[in-house]
């Protein structure tokens, strides 16, 4: 697996996206800050020339490209190699990545999905449809998954997942917005961990390493952090969600 020549050289991160790019914006903001030592967003491409994500990249003075043949492996590989891509991220990207690119970027190709895979994933499961299906099935918990990409939609070894509560009165729009807030927090952490080498895809096909998850006091659903790395962990605040989880998962 090719990564930056020296551990001190930030990884060059390319992002593929099809839509508005709010996850891209979360990556841009994250790597413009403290995580700049781990990685830098250097190229953004979309299969839609009018994708809002491309404008966000241009506003951040990041090189952009439009994918005329997104399923053409050689064309996409040459674009990514020209951009000297170390890590490739799918952020709201709706096309299947061609096998040649998956092979070339194994262990450094990540995707984010707004559900707890393997549930509510696969071909055709994107955008509001996912959240509508979660509500339709009466699920009380949904969430976010970041995973390494393989040759299939929404499959590949899972790097991290985060639970998000389904609350009374939710519709697909409300639920999607709550899930998206968690996406914007989890994706940059996972990309930084892969870019810095803290998380790797082993030859055994399993994910190795540790994801440091800072604890935020501002997002109740985030506060139910399954990982508490603060020196004096404070007791979780009892919310509708934590009460529900305590009922569903008695320790
Ligand atoms: C997000 O929920 C993402 O997980 C999904 O598409 C949605 C839009 O993402 N794949 P963005 O605002 O374009 O990043």
Kindly describe this structure.
The structure is a single chain. Helices cover 32% and strands 20% of the residues. It is built from 8 helices and 9 strands. It has a 7-stranded mixed beta sheet, with helices on one face. It is globular and about 50 Å long. 5-O-phosphono-beta-D-ribofuranosylamine binds next to α1, β5 and α6.
SSE order: EHEHEHEHEHEEHEEHH
- State the total count of DSSP E strands: 9
Rounded mean pLDDT score: 86
State the helicity in percent bands: 25-40%
Q: Whole-Å distance between the termini?
A: 40 Å
Beta content comes to: 15-25%
- Summarize the biggest pleated sheet: 7 strands, mixed
User: Which hetero ligands occur in this complex?
Assistant: 5-O-phosphono-beta-D-ribofuranosylamine
Radius of gyration over all CA atoms, rounded = 18 Å
Specify the oligomeric state: single chain
* Helix vs. strand class: alpha/beta
Supply the number of helical segments. 8
Uncertain residue ranges: 216-229
| Sheet with most strands: strand arrangement | 3-2-1-4-5-6-7
Shape: globular
Q: Can you describe this structure in just a few lines?
A:
With 251 residues, this protein is α/β, with parallel strands linked by helices.
Element layout with pairings:
Elements: E1 11-17, H1 22-31, E2 39-46, H2 52-59, E3 63-66, H3 73-82, E4 87-90, H4 99-104, E5 109-113, H5 128-136, E6 141-148, E7 158-165, H6 172-196, E8 199-201, E9 207-209, H7 220-223, H8 240-248
Parallel strand pairs: 1-2, 1-4, 2-3, 4-5
Antiparallel strand pairs: 5-6, 6-7, 8-9
Bound molecules: 5-O-phosphono-beta-D-ribofuranosylamine.
């Amino acid at each position: 697996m090719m990564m930056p020549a020296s551990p001190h050289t930030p990884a060059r991160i390319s992002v593929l996206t099809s839509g508005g790019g709010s996850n891209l914006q979360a990556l841009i903001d994250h790597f413009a800050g403290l995580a700049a030592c781990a990685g830098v967003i250097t190229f953004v491409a979309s299969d839609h020339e009018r994708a809002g994500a491309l404008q966000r990249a241009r506003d951040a003075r990041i090189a952009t490209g439009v994918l005329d043949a997104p399923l053409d492996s050689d064309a996409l590989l040459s674009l990514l190699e020209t951009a000297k891509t170390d890590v490739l991220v799918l952020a709201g990207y709706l096309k299947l990545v061609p096998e040649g690119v998956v092979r070339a970027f194994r262990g450094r190709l990540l995707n984010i999905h707004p559900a707890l895979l393997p549930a509510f994933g696969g071909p055709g499961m994107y955008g509001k449809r996912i959240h509508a299906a979660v509500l339709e099935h009466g699920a009380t918990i949904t969430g976010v998954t970041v995973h390494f990409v393989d040759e299939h939609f929404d499959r590949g070894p899972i790097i991290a997942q985060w639970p998000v509560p389904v609350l009374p009165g939710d519709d697909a729009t409300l639920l999607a917005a709550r899930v998206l807030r968690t996406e914007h927090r989890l994706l940059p952490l996972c990309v930084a961990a892969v870019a810095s080498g803290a998380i790797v895809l082993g030859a055994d096909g399993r994910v190795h390493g540790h994801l440091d998850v800072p604890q935020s006091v501002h997002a109740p659903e985030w506060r139910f952090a399954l990982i508490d790395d603060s020196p004096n962990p404070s007791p979780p605040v009892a919310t509708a969600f934590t009460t529900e989880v305590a009922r569903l998962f008695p320790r």
